[in-house]
Amino acid sequence: MSEAEAPKQEHQDTSAAEPVTPTPAASTPRGNGLALCALLLGAVGIAVGGWGLWQVRSLEARDQQQLGLVEETRGQAQALAQREQQLSKRLEALPSAAELDERRRLLVDLQGDQQQIRQRLETILGASRKDWRLAEAEHLLRLATLRLSALQDIHSATALVQAADDILREQNDPGAYAAREQMAKSLLALRSTPQPDRTGLFLQLGALREQAARLNPLVPAFEDKGGVLMDIAAEGDGRSRWSEWLETLSHYFRIQLDASQDIKPLLSGQNLSRVRLALSLALEQAQWGALHGQTQVYQQALRQAGEVLKGHFNDENPDSRALLARIDELATQPVEVKVPDLAPTLAALQAYLLRAPGAAGEAEEPASAEPAQEAGQ
Fold it and tell me: Which of 22, 36, 290, 373 sits CB 3.0–4.6 Å from 201 for a disulfide?
């Protein structure tokens, strides 16, 4: 035990021997101050430690950011190096100044050749456009001739000849006077020629065929004006059994000694179907004749249809009488016209084509108009 601790031990022994007397608590504020100081020192230490830790973390984050910037800069440097290599390769692949001059000279020569070709083509087209238009006019006249000879189509032929005349008018050539004169005559002849309504006749005959398919015979009814039936019916009460039988049989049997007209047999079953078929075929043949402009076929077919109606149907039948009247009316309608001849016009145009400059090799011989004339006949 040290010397300093000896008095304390002695003091403790004396204090233990002496009786304890209560003294006021004079050392309590001093103990509280020490505890408060310890707490403050602990808080300051914790704050200093936290601040130090935060500084360390900040430094680490800054180091990471700088490392990222370094890596990015390194990547950009590598990309720049690759781009520089590519540019260097492209620069090596570029032609030299001599090659560029040679290519520029070839391009100028090519442009000059193209310009010369374009000028030649424009010259050729400008010179041959007239010949093409004249050849088109000849083709239109040939087509008009065929339309007249094959179909007797006045409207189409008029439009085609008018188109050919417009082409000659566009040429503004005095040498085309004779050809245009013939075209004017042909146009006047075409416009003065009537055009039959063949389509309308075809449709009307079709409607008559439908009506003929529904045509039924008229059932005859016997009227005895003061004859035998009246005398027999007068015997008895006026409504005897004999009179009823005679009235019933009068619908099936008819005996008339002084008949003023022929009595046609009553059609039924297969006979009626055959008559209807014959009438329909005759009207169908008339349709064909009307559509193709065959007057003889058209009139003969309508005449045959009228004979079928007169021979098998009663004149008192209103349906057959109306059908017969309509057939007689359609038989007078024209289906064929005398078309004008376009051969002189075609020959005049071909003669002009032979005289036209540059068109002698393309135009055909005037003798070629003979087949067109034969086709028109």
Answer: 290
